[in-house]
């Protein structure tokens, strides 16, 4: 199983960006997917997760109301739409997948990880 993350880049404070995750090697709709991020000098932290069906989502308090996670099981992609970006959102964003139907905030629950995509928010 491989996860390909894309869509990172440089954006100004208040701007928007969409990052995408395309798992390969697992069947469409299999397992929950999450986004984590790691800022320089900080530990990796949970951002958002989405269940296998897409019906259940969860967000970190720091991004609630600004970020939206979604999935298209037909295309086997998971997107993270990020609005009202702040400099503190600057980080490498990683997508992660697990075989179970529901997502968790703990990184140890995920079996597969992508290589990460850098998001930089300038002030």
Structure overview:
With 123 residues, the protein is mainly beta. The chain contains no helices and eleven strands. It has strands at 2-6, 9-12, 17-24, 33-38, 45-50, 57-59, 67-72, 77-82, 91-97, 112-113, 117-122. Strands 2, 4, 5, 6, 9, 10 and 11 form a seven-stranded mixed β-sheet that branches. The protein has a four-stranded antiparallel β-sheet with strand order 1-3-8-7, with no helix packed on it. The radius of gyration is 13 Å and the shape is globular. The N and C termini lie far apart (37 Å). The model has no long low-confidence stretch (mean pLDDT 92).
- Principal-axes geometry comes out as globular
| Main sheet record | 7 strands, mixed
Strand percentage, roughly? over 45%
Structural class: mainly beta
The separation of the N and C termini measures 37 Å
Element order: H for helix, E for strand = EEEEEEEEEEE
Number of strands: 11
Q: What percent of the residues sit in helical stretches (DSSP H or I)?
A: under 10%
Q: Give me the Rg, rounded.
A: 13 Å
Tally of individual helices = 0
Q: Indicate the mean pLDDT.
A: 92
Unreliable stretches covering 5 or more consecutive residues: none
